[in-house]
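In keeping with the milestone schedule agreed at the kick-off meeting, the structural modelling team has produced records for the first pair of proteins. Each record is given below as a sequence line and a structure-token line. The laboratory manager (R.T.) confirmed that both were archived under the project's standard naming scheme.
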Amino acid sequence: MARTKTDKKASFSWLTDNAVVQYLRDTRAELRKVHWPTRQEAENLTKIVLVVTVAMALLMGFLDYLFSLGLRGLVAGDAVAIGALIFLVVAGVLAAVILNRQAV
């Protein structure tokens, strides 16, 4: 006896009730809604990310160098280094107070 279309559907009905299959279908439907960037947009955004990453790495390296110089001078008892660190602490506290007042 030949199977009808309803028999084929009935034999695979467990696929429609499976949570994994439903999840994959929903994921596929959501991915169709995504606005994918063009190749040029992707290249431009990648360049921006690389430039910002390198700039932040250089800034962090420079700040690390300055703090190591200050700490080395503080340990050695250098008056200029101690004065510079006190100035930086006071300037940091003042900047925090000013920014806090502007935020309120």
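The second protein of the pair:
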Amino acid sequence: MPEVVQRPWGTFTILDEGPTYKVKRIEVFPGSRLSYQKHFRRSEHWMTVSGNARVILNDREIVLEPGGTIDIPTGASHRVENPGTTLLVFIEIQRGDYFGEDDIVRIQDDYGRA
């Protein structure tokens, strides 16, 4: 059974991983958001499953409805937030050569981690 990891903004579950990829199910609480961040060793592809996502990609705002997708290139500044009143669920596919938490460069964070 996959482990559900708790964060202040919601949860994530690693669904699958290999040497060049990692797949996560991410849940974001209503009114919460992840840190504004970037990575140097991976890109990401997101698909919204339920709820609406407000994505900031290099200071540009994009709204994703269920079924919407977006690509986050390596080195791009990005964040996702849940502007709604129901749980936001999306699937994240990471591609690269390293997936450690120390590849997260936080630009801004609501939880004091920047």
